[in-house]
Amino acid sequence: MSHTPDGFEERGDRDTTELAVYVDEDGVAAIRDAFPQATVEAVEDGWEDRWKEFHRPVVAGGLWIGPPWIEPPADRPAVVVDPGRAFGTGAHQTTRACIEGLARLERGSLLDAGCGSGVVAVAAARLGFEPVRAVDFDEVAVDVAAATAHLNDVVVEVSQADVLRDPLAPADVVVANIELPVVEQLLERLDARHAVTSGYFASERPAAPSWTPVDRVELEGWAADVLAKRK
Questions:
Q1: What does the H/E/C string look like for 108-155?
Q2: Does the pTM of the predicted model rise above 0.70?
Q3: Bigger pLDDT: 224 vs 18
């Protein structure tokens, strides 16, 4: 839309929809010419950075996880995640539960299947897992995950793959924070000793005939399961 090159905010309910556009004085004149019924309200200085207030640091598995504009504590390992592109910031309960589950496992090689922003893969590297690989079907997520690894100065091999169709490298641990039906299909094709799975409510558990539950982390109604491959 030519009048809103920086996008717009959608407000409303089932019956009405209102579009909120943030522009300068020249932009106001252009919008009023195109939409005479438009109303104008002044906004406070700094409105463009107000969204940052919603991104606060969290702690999971002994790691500080937060955005780049907040200084990490000196006494705790940190994972810095830029939330500018919405592929996961580390704050969601399933992400934190996965990291808590990983922190309880013996270190070794790791595959993050469906890595999103790469926060779990980077957290795994911080916890001492190596080598760490991460895959995602979305090519933008692959770019974001690689950028997250670079931002944190850790080595994560990131590539594009469909976790249900493409070959997956064997690993000591596979972590998958995705939808439950995908988790269940994925588990049956993994070559791994342990799996940490999430993306579902605490009232749910993955059907995994080839795996034995060994641990569970529950956070605010969500869960991550730690599973061991049956011999």
A1: CCEEEECCCCCHHHHHHHHHCCCCEEEEECCHHHHHHHHHHHHHCCCC
A2: yes
A3: 224
